[in-house]
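Checklist before submission:
- one chain only
- standard amino acids only
- sequence pasted in full

Submission:
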Amino acid sequence: MNLPMKFASRRARPDREGAGVPEERWVPMPTSTSFPSGHSASAFAFASAVAGTMPGLAIPLRGLAAGVAVSGSSFGLMVTGPLMPALLDAYGAQGWRVSWYILGAMAFGACILCGWLLRDRPEERGAAPLGETEAERLQRSAARPSAFGWASIWQSPVVWHLAAIYFAFGLSYVIYATFFIRYLVGERGFTPGAARLLWLTIGVVSVVSGFVWGGISDRWGRRIALVGVFALQGAAFLLFGSTWAAWTVYASAGLFAVTAWSVPALMAASAGDIFGARLAPAAIGLVTLVMSVGQAVGPYLAGRIADAAHSFAPAFVTAGGVALVLGVGGSILLRPPRR
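Returned file contents:
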């Protein structure tokens, strides 16, 4: 929920005293701690949502199901994107306080629903994992319970490989999402309303991103899907920061929208394939922890780059380079588990 709040806050402000430069053109000093805390919280919300799908699904359905789970963030953007500016307008100086109260109440309500409706395993409701074959059911029934095996996760080279790829996503996408509107208004000549509308459109289109790429990964493999997603996102970030042609803004927005929340779904499905339904939540938690480091570093790095270059454009180019080199390169080197 932190993204809609920042989305709502990026309005044209009065000129800096004695400067004659609109506030939106000023590069903020990267000293705020709200970026790491807010984005890290959203990262672990993603992790909890997708990890909960693993025990109830067979391998061929995990990518699609995880994609459906993360698509909820797009619906959240569609609701809170228009809601937050309206609250800020209605309550003036107290608008931030009211907005955070409402967001907190929404999160608390979701917590109650999860406790009421969700179960850790389908067996608790007398059901079997969806899509499970008879051979898989017999194999699962014959398997003996074992110790949790946390060491098998953090000692696995594969989990750290996944974590590095996920780090690339966290660092690159957060730069794009955090400074998208500020860059359009401050450097590309957009009005605040037009920039917010474009970001809202991204939120609407991105509803399909998770389950489309999750379905692709179920059909053609996690590695191919990850390579495709990072290639498109890298192109989106590079287009946004490397050229001033007007069409590149919309092309960049489109490329990001169709891939926006697919990486968390693909990470969850990959962890489920490699570590199994029982250990997958712990593996997802570990790689998400590393990803949240990228989320914390991204805005700080972008702010430093913008301070030096007097523009956010090089920061978006940097995000594109990270997505292509570490994201695409790391995904190409990823090998599916042997079964």
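Reviewer check: Residues 2-126+153-333 form a domain with the Growth Hormone; Chain: A; fold (CATH 1.20.1250.20).
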